[in-house]
Amino acid sequence: MKKMIVLNVNGETHEVAVNPWKTLVDVLRNDLRLTGAKRACEMGTCGACTVIMDGQAILSCLTLAVECEGHLITTIEGIEGPDGLHSLQKSFIENGAVQCGFCTPGIIMTAKALLDENPNPDDIEIKDALSGNYCRCTGHIKTIEAVRMAAQTDREGD
Amino acid sequence: MRLPQFEYLRPDSLKECLLMLEESNTDARVMSGGTGLLVNMKHGVIYPKRVVSIKSLSELSSITKDSEGNVQIGACVTLSNLSKHPLISQKFPVLHNAVRSVGSMHIRNMATLGGNICLETRCWYYNQSRQWRQAKGLCHRTGGSVCHAISGSKRCHAINSSDTVVVLMALDALVYVMKKDQERSIPIREFFKDNGAHNTVLEEGEIVASIVIPKTAEFTPAKYIKIQHRQGIDFAIASIGAALKRNGKAGEMTIVVNSIASAPVMLKKTSQIIMESGFKEDAILKAAKEARSEIGTLTNLFSSAGYKRQIVEVLVRRVLYGIKDEMDLRRDKA
Amino acid sequence: MPIKAKEYGVIGKRQPKKDGLLKTTGRSQFTDDIILPGMLYGKIIRSPLARGKIIKIDTKRAERLAGVKAVITQKDCPGIMTDLDRQLLCNDTVNFVGDEVAAVAAIDDDTAAEAAALIKIEYKPLEALFSIEKANDKGAPVIHSGHENNYADEFDYEIGNVDEAFSVSEYVRVGEYAFNPNHNCYAEHHVVIADYSIPGKLSIWMPNQSPLFIQKSMGGILGISEGNVRVFNLNTGGAFSGRIGPRKHDFIAALLSKKSLRPVKIRCTADEEFIVYSGGGYSRYIIKTGVMKDGTIKATDATYLFDCGAYWISGVNFLHRLKYHLFPQIYHMNALRWKERAIYTNNPPNMYPHGAGFLQLKLAQETELDLIAQDLGMDPVEIRLKNAVSKGDTNLTRAHYASCGLKECIQKTTKISLWKKKYGKLPPYKGIGIGCGAMNSGGYDRSAALVKIGEDGRCSLFIGLPDMGQGSHTTMAMIAAETLGIATEDVDIVAGDTDAAPFDIGAFAQRGTFFTGNAVKVACLDAKKQLAAVASKKLGVKPSMLIFRDRKIFPKGKPGKALTLKDVISSDMNSMGGSCIMGRGFYNSPAKTMEPWESTLAYSFGAQVAEVEVDQETGIVTLIRVTVAHDVGFAINPMAVEGQIDGQVFSGMGQIMTEECIMERGVVLNPSFLDYRLPRTFEVPEIDYSIVETIDPYGPFGAKEVGEGPLVCTMAIANAVSNAIGYPVKEYPITPERVLQAIQNKKKAKGNEPLDRLF
Ligand SMILES: Cc1cc2nc3c(=O)[nH]c(=O)nc-3n(C[C@H](O)[C@H](O)[C@H](O)COP(=O)(O)OP(=O)(O)OC[C@H]3O[C@@H](n4cnc5c(N)ncnc54)[C@H](O)[C@@H]3O)c2cc1C
Ligand code: SF4
Ligand code: FES
Ligand code: FES
Predict the structure, then answer these.
(1) By the CB < 8 Å criterion, does B8 face chain A?
(2) What residues of B are in contact with residue A66 (Cβ under 8 Å)?
(3) Last residue of some domain: A53, A78, A103?
(4) CATH number of the domain within which A24 lies
(5) How far apart are CA C132 and CA A10, in angstroms?
(6) Are C338 and C409 in a shared domain?
(7) Which terminus of chain C faces fewer neighbouring Cβ atoms within 10 Å, N or C?
């Protein structure tokens, strides 16, 4: 039996009817047509589906949509500001941290959650945060660098 | 992979939750963080009619200190919140380390301590899709009468791979469990059963409400090590927790290893060697050797038995040296 | 004389990817992001048996389920073979766990899954074969009739006088190496949308690296002309040698669509990903090398046995035969004998791991080289330099090197990594190793490109080359911009739709930069000529005297007289008798032969030095640092070159150290990104890059490939591990268990590695 729920995504509220066994990633992608969060393993192993819920990076493939009512969800589509790209987005582009780009939204969302909580992470903390994100193309060499540089830019900007 | 269909229930209070579970009998499963349960449901190895979500129950989501100074951790406290809590990171750094070693940051943001303790045992022949399992046929755990992991075995040997329990056992924590009109507390050392199919003593309708770490564990020298193929996101090849509780002069050593059998293994003989001879070099080496045989038959391991034995020996040695160093450090400070 | 980068306006500078904005904001579309109107969801019913007879298929209940729009079995595609030995859907036998037997399409995935479960298939199990040894046994069941010895492919090759070369050799060594199956592991799982609802016209959306091959292969097999297969190649989430041709599910989606008259999407789930992966199957090399006492290589005799699984993927697997060229590729030798045997088993069908298995061959060859050096009392670097090819050389298999920076790469990496200070002098269980390699920039081949320049001076570049992340579209835009004197951001790439794309065979064999790059250059030169004709009239100077720079055209030495490109185009187009600027380019290889390797005009070369630390108690290896030097001819975009190096070092370390599909009776025991251990952030080593530029005479602006060259140098990692433990590891990946085993073997052998067989 479908249930009506209200989801707050990127500051907008959406009313959707969902079956309880539908995961957040499916509802975001199929019902709200926010396809930035990717669907790959669907088993919690790759991080491609990462979104931010109440400030924390979570896996939308292992989250039931019905559990998300009353929470604030941010997806990759919601982090560009009025002044343009988020510093992480810029840094990923400028530092060559994007190749095929399939993993990119998930990695950026993970990194955003990290920097929001810890604006000054060391490399171990960056690696720890990103270890849940699978990236075949870049080997994570430039993604780690991009997060480090974004953190630095943010600090200098303050 | 898709989830099977189910009815979703979200009780507003613990009381309502226990009632729901009582009424549902075997049809219901509690879901906390869901990182273990939903994966199993996607694989189609568990398909409850009802899923009772407990994560939002405020009664189960706090970390408090009781009047005697024991630390009570609600079953639904997420691993991230647990590791960040000052009570834990300052007073029980060993637990903090164990918690931090689970999965990835994402998983820890979602997963809870109660879920980690109650995590279903894992097996290469079980944690697979239905399509995959069809190629092998049913085993004890899926309603058949064979075990693919150990031919000839009469029971399921799936592995307990929870990382936090080795530390909770070493620290002699208590598990508070509840069911409608019933509450009991179980020493975590008695919480697990060496049976892959039913690996805890929880009864029908019973849930873990909280985990209590005794005040006495606060200053216990203790250490946790996890050896994994890949740092970051990976289950353990084996993980170990050890603590030296001091009763007056004599110490009580506890060493617990997990990810090698259906229940965490307390290495009593190994610990005894240290209790008798102290942290002398040769005693440590002897203890580590002893651990190799004390872990008993190794089965269903995700890597060869010989290798696991080797890893256990190394872990015991390293954990004992670790505690020795910690004590030396304390002595120097004192 | 190398041309200095600063003489160029665009190329040679770090250029972020053109699609960076789309990809970092979630705007870029991948196949699974598309939902077409009326689209159905397909599900494949696969064999649970490794080998068996199909007795009965009952689809009635599935057909009756509400929401099911099509059910297909062999009856819907009688006689259609996707490979020489493989039916589109199994007819009467199944040959591996996962073999496709039937499929359904329904209005949503839940219904499709329910319907799939309602299809009842009765089988009779047959004896199955799971190893190449068993398949070779006398009396083993025959998997495909006509292949009585279970050989899917046999190929023998010999060049030079092998027996003589061995007889004059002063030292001969034999070694045997085993490689366990691995997976290419794209981030984006296999997925396809097929719309075959209009008779004779198939539209297909799927991640791939060669739309043209998809057209040819699917058109040929489905019996429609290739132009009627329209491939939409959106973004591709990684390809890594594995997305050259169509896979079974692509055909199945097409058939379901034909039957239901609606578009159908099929997406592989995490476990199916490990059924359709067609990665590297188990393989084994037995290598005999003859050398002189001074280290000069005389001859190689190599046997390559490969478990191709249940079917021989005929369209692409011919490459296995041709791997022999890697032996004499960078080291001179007088003779080579090669024996390739691809052997059928009832494992999943295999094609290539990332790098098409070249890394595995090189691992075997270069480990042997290290052992030979050790036996002869030479330094591994010395033996490599001794035999290394140079510019102008033609090697044994007739590959000619118009440019070659191999020795420079070896010297650079050893210098930067302080090889001399470290080799043989490191503490126990720390190791250093070197690996060298080369890679072809395509073969005998051709590419086309079209360019249109609008009134506003913006340029649309039409190409058929996909960008799977390597940044080829950015590189093409840079080549266009450089040629036309405009900026990279002025160039829009039009690609991803075969109806609009000029001829291009795709992004594989490291051909993109070389072939399509050259074609783009030709197209832009054509456009430039048209522009120059117009501008020369306006400026009153000869076309040859015009300079194109910064979106302007001016007579040489007189930038003050510059006309903007925009004005030149616009005024001409809108004048009487004016024209529209459209350039066309076709690059056809000027090679004198079509022979593989011989026809390749440019090879990249590289060397890597790896440093590792081994935990002698757990066998866990930490890769500390990799020093890379790669001769890419000319780095059009150094940032992309670095990205390629990163990815390949990473892939190499995975294939060498941790990645393994652990097989048991035809099934992968670890079909997940958790238990199939691709390295993650903590495993990442430090990488030191040196880009060596040798300006290839054929490459566009001197550029050569960098798409796979660095990967075949990563055997440095394996050599470093062997160096650390003082004993060679001969079975890959070198998991901690195998490292411990090698340490134990060493103790048993008291340091002397026995010649010949190790297992
Ligand atoms: C990619 C990945 C990596 C992982 N890595 C690790 C790892 O390194 N180490 C590790 O230990 N685990 C790991 N896990 C397993 C799992 O995520 C954790 O063990 C987690 O702590 C489980 O907690 P949860 O709250 O999500 O449990 P849930 O999924 O909610 O529950 C797990 C089980 O416990 C039962 N349960 C939950 N709460 C209660 C309760 N209060 N009372 C009674 N029963 C209850 C559920 O019914 C279910 O059977 C990993 C999982 C994934 C997907
Ligand atoms: S240990 Fe044996 S019985 Fe238990 S899940 Fe694995 S195969 Fe089944
Ligand atoms: S899709 Fe969610 S972790 Fe892979
Ligand atoms: S950029 Fe391709 S997987 Fe990360």
Answers:
(1) yes
(2) 8, 10
(3) A78
(4) 3.10.20.30
(5) 55
(6) yes
(7) N
Q: pLDDT of C465-484, one tens digit each?
A: 999 999 999 999 999 999 99
- The reply to whether residue A139 touches residue C187, judged by beta carbons under 8 angstroms, is no
Q: For atom 5 of ligand 2, which residue has the closest CA?
A: B126
Query: How many domains in chain A?
Result: 2
Q: How far apart are CA C622 and CA B82, in angstroms?
A: 30
Optimal mutation site among A23, A141, A142, interface C, most CBs of chain C within 10 A: A141
Residue C1 pLDDT exceeds 70:
no
Beta pairing partners, C512: none
Distance CA C564, CA C558 (A): 14
Q: Does A106 contact C at CB distance below 8 Å?
A: no
pLDDT of A1 reads 79
Q: In this structure, which ligand is nearest to the CA of B150?
A: 2
Ligand 4 neighbours, Cβ below 6 Å, are A 99-104, 135-138; C 187, 238, 469
Contact yes or no for B151/B136 (Cβ under 8 A): no
Nearest chain A Cα distance for residue C632, angstroms: 18
- Tell me the nearest-neighbour CA distance from C497 into chain A, angstroms: 18
Structural domain span for residue C49: 34-126+195-267
Interface of A with B in 7-66 (CB under 8 A): 19-23, 42-45, 47, 50, 56-59, 62-64, 66
- Chain A, 56 to 75: residues with Cβ < 8 Å from chain C are 75
Instruction: Dig out the tokens for C544 from the structure.
Output: 């040859």
Amino acid sitting at position C317: N
**Which of C588, C619, C645 is the last residue before a domain boundary?**
C588
Q: Which of B11, B49, B53 is nearest to B30 (CA)?
A: B53
**The residue type at C86:** R
- Residue C600: name the closest of C696, C484, C460 by CA: C696
Q: What is the average pLDDT across B45-70?
A: 95
C708 tagged catalytic: yes
Do A10 and A71 lie in a common domain?
Answer: yes
Range of the domain at A49: 3-78
Among chain B residues, the shortest Cα distance to C615 is held by B314
Q: Count of domains in chain C?
A: 3
How distant is the alpha carbon of residue A116 from its chain centre? 12
Sign of CA dihedral B50, B55, B60, B65: positive
- Provide the whole-model pTM: 0.96
Atom of ligand 4 nearest to the CA of A99: 1
Report in angstroms the alpha-carbon separations of C164 from B303, C169, C340, C368, C452. 47, 9, 22, 21, 60
Domain identity same for C41 and C21: no
| Secondary structure element (H or E) that encloses residue C553, with its range | strand C552-555
Choose, from C660, C708, C731, C753, the residue flagged as catalytic.
C708
Contacts of B103 (CB under 8 A, 6+ apart): A44, A132, B35, B111, B233
Per-residue pLDDT averaged across B90-95, rounded?
Answer: 95
Verify that A96 and A141 share a domain, yes or no.
yes
Neighbouring-strand partners of residue B28:
B50
Is the pLDDT at B248 greater than 70? The verdict is no
Q: For residue B157, is pLDDT > 80?
A: yes
Separation between Cα atoms, residue B237 and residue B217, nearest integer Å: 27
Q: Which residues of C touch A94 (CB under 8 A)?
A: 16
**A120 in the same domain as A66:** no
Residue found under tokens 């046994």: C137
The yes-or-no verdict on residue C423 having pLDDT over 80 is yes
Same domain, A47 and A95: no
Instruction: Report the C-alpha gap between C139 and C92 in whole angstroms.
Output: 22
**Last residue of some domain: A45, A78, A111?**
A78
Asked whether residue C132 is domain-assigned, the answer is no
- Residues from chain A that touch B4, judged by Cβ atoms under 8 A, are 21
Number of helices (H) and strands (E), helices first, in chain B?
12, 12
| Beta carbon of B149 within 6 Å of any ligand 2 atom | yes
Q: Chains that contact A by 3+ CB pairs under 8 Å?
A: B, C
